[in-house]
């Protein structure tokens, strides 16, 4: 390392030292962060269904899995339902998770530059009713057909292996 520094022009060595010092100073405790954190308006709060660090990282996986269970199986009211998230995280001011840039979903998704497509179909505010859509009612035809297709799909490979 010393040999490398001796072969570099003094201006380059000085520039490297200053750049290193600037990086260390920016990451020092009490220093202003280089990237501003998202501003999230206070919501209803309470205990989340998972640890906040886990939800920040994996909420989309939970919601996608729950979506599949709801749409294909007619299962509602589970631990990771979008409805439950909206009821807890809706702003006290706007009663929404996506009405303004400080609302729960919009603030973090804007910060991460991720498009939210949930609300193209779903309401951004807690609903006053808990009525099921007729196509996905747990006792409806679509839910029954979905369960039958899943059962057949699971049983079909073993049935094919028999002579």
How would you describe this protein?
This protein has 163 residues and is an all-alpha fold. The protein is built from six helices and no strands. The protein has helices spanning 2-7, 10-26, 52-73, 82-89, 104-111, 141-161. The radius of gyration is 26 Å and the shape is elongated.
Question: Secondary-structure blueprint of this entry?
Answer:
Elements: H1 2-7, H2 10-26, H3 52-73, H4 82-89, H5 104-111, H6 141-161
Question: Can you give keywords for this protein?
Answer:
163 residues, mainly alpha, disordered C terminus, 6 helices
Provide a quick synopsis of the model.
With 163 residues, the chain is mainly alpha-helical.
Question: What is the mean predicted local confidence, pLDDT?
Answer: 74
- Report the sheet with the most strands, covering strand number, pairing sense and barrel closure: none
Residues in helix, %: 40-55%
The H/E string reads HHHHHH
N- to C-terminal distance: 71 Å
Number of strands: 0
Shape: elongated
Quote the beta fraction. Answer: under 5%
Question: Which value, in Å, is the CA radius of gyration?
Answer: 26 Å
Question: Which stretches of 5+ consecutive residues score pLDDT under 50?
Answer: 155-163
Structural class: mainly alpha
- Put simply, the count of helices is 6
């Amino acid at each position: 390392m010393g040999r490398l520094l001796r072969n570099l022009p003094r201006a380059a060595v000085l520039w490297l030292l200053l750049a290193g010092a600037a990086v260390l100073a920016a990451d020092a405790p009490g220093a202003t962060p280089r990237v501003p954190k998202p501003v999230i308006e206070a919501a209803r709060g309470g205990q989340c269904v998972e640890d906040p660090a886990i939800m920040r990282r994996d909420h989309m996986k939970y919601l996608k899995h729950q979506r599949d269970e709801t749409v294909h199986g007619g299962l509602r009211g589970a631990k990771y339902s979008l409805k439950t998230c909206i009821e807890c995280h809706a702003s006290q001011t706007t009663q929404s998770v996506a009405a303004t840039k400080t609302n729960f979903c919009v603030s973090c998704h804007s910060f991460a530059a991720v498009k939210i497509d949930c609300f193209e179909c779903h309401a951004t505010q807690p609903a006053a009713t808990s009525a099921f859509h007729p196509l996905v009612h747990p006792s409806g035809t679509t839910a029954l057909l979905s369960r039958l297709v899943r059962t057949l799909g699971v049983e079909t490979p073993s049935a094919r292996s028999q002579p």
